[in-house]
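Workshop exercise sheet. Pairs work together: one partner reads the sequence aloud, the other fills in the structure field after running the prediction. Swap roles for the next sheet.
Pair: D.N. / O.F.
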Amino acid sequence: MNQANRNDPRYIRLLAGKIAEQARSLGPLTLMHVCGTHEHTIVSSGLRSLLPDTIRLVSGPGCPVCITPKEDIEAMIHLARSGLTVTTFGDMMRIPSDSGSLADAKAEGADVRIVYGIANALSIAQEERREVVHFGIGFETTVPTSSVALASQPDNFSIYSVHRTIPEALDFLLSNSLAVDGFVDPGHVSTIIGSNAYAFISERYGVPQVVAGFEPGDVLLAVLMLLDQRVEGRAEVENEYVRAVRPGGNVKARALIDETFRQVDAKWRALPVIPRSGLAIAPKYREWDAVHRHRDVLESFSYTPREEDSACRCKDILLGACSPQDCPLFRRVCTPDAPVGPCMVSVEGTCYISYKYG
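Structure field:
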């Protein structure tokens, strides 16, 4: 099946029919994906309407902007207000926190700049000779670019890392009784870490997994492959996205990540601390770790978290426990122009996607 055929309505109908046929021999199932791009494909293409009522395809914590803790956003705001140049991706600018957002800090006069990649941030540091702090967010997909920047050892540049890892998050959710019958694993992340990185999850919990691409046909085929595993009594990792993902991933990228970062316990917004799910900059490169480099500025930073709006259901949405339509704020109070929770800000956020396409 070539790339064009993955969008062919005939192929989509064929897969939907096969899914319906397999579902007849199974009870109700909940399948979870953890990728904002997958959610975009599912909602914009109306894929949930093609699934039997017995199959729930829910969105998990797959938006890196949405799960960035408020205390880290507050720390970056503090660095910006202290006179440092802060660079970040566009989605991060408007994520609400207790003292506002990075966009608010910029409006106050702080030097906060949107970049489209960490290379842009490095260019600012090199061309303007000012001290630049880059907000290093994202899952394993974006970590290699941070690794390259660290390895280049620029003399006026540092990274504030809030990078997070997906397999550890899936392990944590299942260890805390998440009722999921199968995972659609993220394609972009898997190009780096490989499909083998999820094997321990299936072995430990008996949960089928399929790494999937991003076309409508990719997602539906991944659902069908999960159902096949359930029917056949298997629980393993299969790779639907063979055109881009290898079992071992990108070996060079993984080696560079291992050199420049170390795994640490880390908090996720709306979730507790997840063991070994964060990537802190390795001691060898601490000169380019913003937490170390600007420790004198951060010494004056203190933060006492406030509770999230009790009516906001971002936590439940990130856990796949409800849909945006179940939140009393959705479309009424919380909109992309006036977001209450983080899921309404990012283009990978479940609420934003539902607002735009639903």
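Discussion prompt: Residues 216-232 form the longest helix (17 residues). What would you look at next?
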